[in-house]
Design brief:
By secondary structure, the protein is mostly beta strands. It is built from one helix and ten strands; from the N terminus they run ββββαββββββ. Strand 7 and strand 8 (135-150) form a beta hairpin. The protein is globular and about 80 Å long.
């Protein structure tokens, strides 16, 4: 069926349980135990699966006689609308500390980053929806293991939102079986019968 829907992006610590496709309805993120929604996005959320392959060409055939994948990748991209300390720390790989307002003290967030070569690994999900018999049913894509980074210019513009472009890159989860260790897609196609 045809999908026309916005998507929400969520993240969680690696190993967090996926929301149940039957009991967790669309857009009920409070029911996603252990997951956090990134927030509003200013651009469509895109999902791309790509792979490279090696092919065997022989002199006796015009077409290759064998192919094999040599690498694969999943990339999720969007742009976050909220310019907040916790989100900046998440995508810049830094830390955020919040100071509350007090006597002679303004409230503020302080984000620091730089010099650490490691990227924090998390689980990621995007949730869209499809309409089935007049009810919005979830369509979810889960990345078992991945990283998130700021991936472009952050504009300060009087005619635009100061949005944070992000890229989520999937990593293989070697604790899962081959053929099942990169991502999972759940697409609810009908309501339960009882």
């Amino acid at each position: 069926s045809v999908l026309v829907a916005e998507a929400a992006i969520l993240y969680a610590p690696i190993g967090t349980t996926l929301p149940d496709e039957t009991s967790v309805a669309w857009n009920t993120f409070g029911s996603w135990t252990g997951w956090t929604m990134l927030g509003y996005t200013t651009q469509p959320t895109t999902f791309a699966y790509n792979y490279e392959n090696f092919q065997v060409d022989v002199q006796q055939s015009l077409a290759p006689i064998k192919q094999r994948k040599t690498s694969e990748s999943v990339v999720i991209s969007s742009s976050l609308a909220q310019f907040e300390g916790a989100l900046l720390a998440l995508v810049l790989g830094g830390t955020n500390s919040d100071t509350a307002a007090g006597a002679s003290q303004k409230a503020f967030s302080r984000v620091v980053t730089g010099g650490d070569p490691s990227l924090t690994e998390r689980m990621f999900a995007i949730e869209g929806w499809r309409e089935v018999a007049g009810v919005k049913q979830p369509v979810r894509i889960f990345v078992y293991r991945g990283t998130i980074t700021a991936s472009g210019d952050i504009p300060f513009d009087k005619n635009a939102v100061t949005a944070i472009p992000i890229t989520i890159n999937a990593l293989g989860d070697t604790t899962k079986a081959v053929g099942q260790n990169l991502l999972e897609i759940q697409s609810v196609t009908a309501a339960a019968t009882s």
